[in-house]
Task: structure prediction
Amino acid sequence: MLTLDESFKLFEEKNRSAESGGGTEKIEKIHKAGRKTARERILLLLDPNTFVEFDKLVTHRCTDFGMGYKKIPGDGMITGYGKIDGRLVFVFAQDFTVFGGTMSRANADKVVKVMDMAMKAGAPVIGLNDSGGARIQEGVESLAGYADIFYRNVMASGVIPQISAIFGPCAGGAVYSPAMTDFILMVKDTSYMFVTGPEVIKTVTHEEVSMNDLGGAVTHNTRSGVAHFAGENDEQVLMMIRELMSFLPLNNMEDPPAQPCTDDVMRQDEKLQTLVPADPNKPYDMKELITMVVDNHNFFEVMPHYAQNILTGFGRLGGRPVGIVANQPAYLAGVLDINSAVKGARFVRFCDCFNIPLITFEDVPGFLPGTTQEYGGIIKHGAKLLYAFCEATVPKITVITRKAYGGAYCVMSSKHIGGDINYAYPTAEIAVMGPEGAVNIIHKGKLTEDKRAEAVEDYRKMFANPYKAAELGYIDEIIYPKQTRMKLIQALELTQNKSKTNPPKKHGNIPL
Ligand code: HXC
Result:
């Protein structure tokens, strides 16, 4: 029988062994690369002294390939719960120092346990990923573990927010679970995501590509659109998660967290009056407009580096979180194309899942013409944004700042697809298309150059304004740009208790 002292010592030793992961040498290697260990990441992410760990002493059960002799308590997966700004969250973190953070049956069970608890408690799950994927020695058991997690990712989708941060090389199965969560954050130069790595690619397709070019943070934030945020280092990414969480409810039955508003709700910014140029062909920065309008000028942009012709992100108005979708005339004239439609649609659906009101700022010349877009399926991808806005039942408030042409007018949260309050600036142009294009079609080959210019001017006067739409009640109010903040806050108050549900169904069939 052990004495009390001996039994406490044994307990301490086991704890120490679990906490030292793969050992000093491997931890030093991680630190030398400017990275943090899995445990350090969790402690940086959560409020001080709030982390409670589960299953610290779990080990794998594999005996093949001599694995029976290699057991490390915790098995390279740290799981538990804690708080962010005093609010409950569940976490799991892969420890790259233990078998490369790979997924074993035992550590998959640990993830499954926190996911199930998170669903019961109605609290988000944050995954800190750093893994070589399925643990090869465990074969199908590892794949089964992944599949159990994938299934839970899908069941939890739209019920609790799921956030994935990528800190190291994540390969194979290690990228598919993040892909099914709501947001992916990556660290520049030290994190990678790919289904198959450079070596496999070289063998199969003979392409030579570096890890960074294939699956680095820049690639996934600018080219593939897989990731939503890129940070300079581990700390910055962890702070981004805390900030992101500040806009999100803990589950789909809660409202997003309001904060006391320290900014004047009646604030009118004179600079807004002249931000949208009178010349419809002149660009301006929609981000500037948004930051002037939201509380304390704080706009937390989502996917800032991808499809920059559409802006998505969170802000607060009168203290209440809102999701903002806006065309960006400073980039490709704010046109809608495949990438921007998909980016916008996913964001709209996220906000709708989690009761976050949608504010839409619209200045869009239409869908991008061209064979690249048509062959790429702009019809079905553009339809995703239309579908998402139609389906969303959260308060939807729209401000048309300038162009609202063609199908894009319908798509961008118009009255007809459930916009609750639709504003327009006096500079708004709501029509089937711009004056030049319209005259070229209506009077094709029938006018001299002088007469054509006259017809363009007539069309501009008749249709390139918000008044036709306002006469028909499609616009609720024409407002001065400087009133935007005040009007949006009013509209949010008005729609605060909005109750709308779509017809009962198993689920819709969004054009994928
Ligand atoms: C078991 C693995 C492993 C794996 C890495 N390790 N990947 N062990 N299974 N999948 C181990 C290494 O043997 C090593 O162990 C330690 O982790 C660190 O790996 P290194 O190669 O030394 O590190 P690094 O040079 O940084 O390279 C990391 C890496 C590379 C890029 C992740 O290891 C790699 O390419 N691994 C294979 C990735 C992969 O193809 N995964 C797909 C699995 S299939 P020691 O003991 O030396 O420290 C899959 C399918 C799921 O995931 C499908 C679901 C849909």
